[in-house]
Every structure is written in structure tokens, then in C-alpha cells.
Design brief:
Layout lengths: L1 E5 L7 H10 L4 E4 L10 H5 L4 E4 L13 E6 L2 E6 L11 H9 L4 E3 L6 E6 L2 E6 L13 E7 L5 E7 L1
Parallel strand pairs: 1-2, 2-3, 5-6, 6-8
Antiparallel strand pairs: 1-9, 4-5, 7-8, 9-10
Length: about 160
């Protein structure tokens, strides 16, 4: 299974559309918030048969998306959130603890516009960065591809434009 993980596109969708086309076929698209209205078009861009999981960001004022989601990905359980309710700007440790307390072994977040991938207290914590307004050194738009293998193993590939 191939999963495209994005965040913080802020309705500046050219890079998102480019990445979707470049990475197709994808089995799932996860958007970790701040789509700012584009969430209604993203499923069409991703194509029929692509599963969608999207959460509410701090700039998604009129969206009806859920604030967070818990979902099964292969043999893993993931917590998806934008992250601003967990203070991720100060560090992802609180989010990792929340995920662990819910029985999740993966936590995904956005909000900081900075890519991140690490294991914290047994929880794989990741942030794909931002495709529109990156804030890390070099400021390259970024996203992540997760490959879920048949044996349950997961590979995380941070990619840049």
C-alpha cells in the first residue's frame, strides 16, 4: 500500500496537484490539516479508489473535518491530528504520549511546516512538512510517502520538491 501524507497546503494547491500526479497510483492520501477549503477537491485530484483521511487544521475555519482521527494502517494504529492542540510547536513529545495512551504506535501531525520523523517512547512520530509554506532550513516544499508492506513493515520516505 502506498500512502501520500501532506499537510499545511493552505489552499495553494499547485504543488499538491503536482505531487499527486507524480506519485500516482496512491492507495491513500492523508492530509494533516490547513487545506483551507481545498478538502472538497482533493479526493477528485487523488482519483477514484484512493482512500482519504483528512483532519481539521487551525486555519480550517469553515470546514466540517474531524479535529483528529484514529485509524488502522496495516497492523498499526495511527493518531492523525494537526497538532496545535498538543503544543507541537514546542515539541512532539506530548503528542507521542497521547498517541501511546490511546494504544497508537504512530502519530502524524502538521502545523509546524517542518518535516519530522522519529521514534519517541515507542511511537513513530511524523510530520510531512508543508507543500506550500515550508519553514525548515532550505525551505523546500515537502511531503512523505509511507509504504506498507504485506508483512506489516512500514517504510517512511521524506520527499522534497
Amino acid at each position: 500500500m502506498k500512502i501520500l501524507v501532506v499537510s499545511d497546503t493552505h489552499r495553494k494547491d499547485d504543488n499538491l496537484q503536482f505531487v499527486i500526479e507524480q506519485e500516482k497510483p496512491i492507495d491513500m492520501l492523508i492530509h494533516l490539516g490547513d487545506a483551507e477549503g481545498s478538502e472538497q477537491w482533493i479526493p477528485e485530484w487523488a482519483g477514484a479508489g484512493c482512500k482519504m483521511a483528512m483532519v481539521l487544521g487551525n486555519n480550517d475555519f469553515f470546514s466540517r473535518l474531524e479535529r483528529e482521527l484514529e485509524m488502522e494502517i496495516g497492523s498499526h494504529k495511527a493518531l492523525l491530528t494537526h497538532g496545535h492542540y498538543y503544543g507541537v510547536s514546542m515539541g512532539p513529545e506530548g503528542l507521542a504520549e497521547e498517541a501511546k495512551s490511546r494504544g497508537c504506535d504512530i502519530a502524524m501531525y502538521g502545523h509546524t511546516h517542518r518535516p519530522f520523523l522519529d521514534k519517541i517512547n515507542g511511537v513513530t512520530v511524523l510530520n510531512p512538512g508543508s507543500l506550500s509554506y515550508p519553514r525548515q532550513e532550505g525551505r523546500h516544499p515537502s511531503y512523505m510517502i509511507i509504504t506498507v508492506h504485506e508483512d506489516g513493515r512500514m517504510d517512511y520516505d521524506q520527499r522534497y520538491l
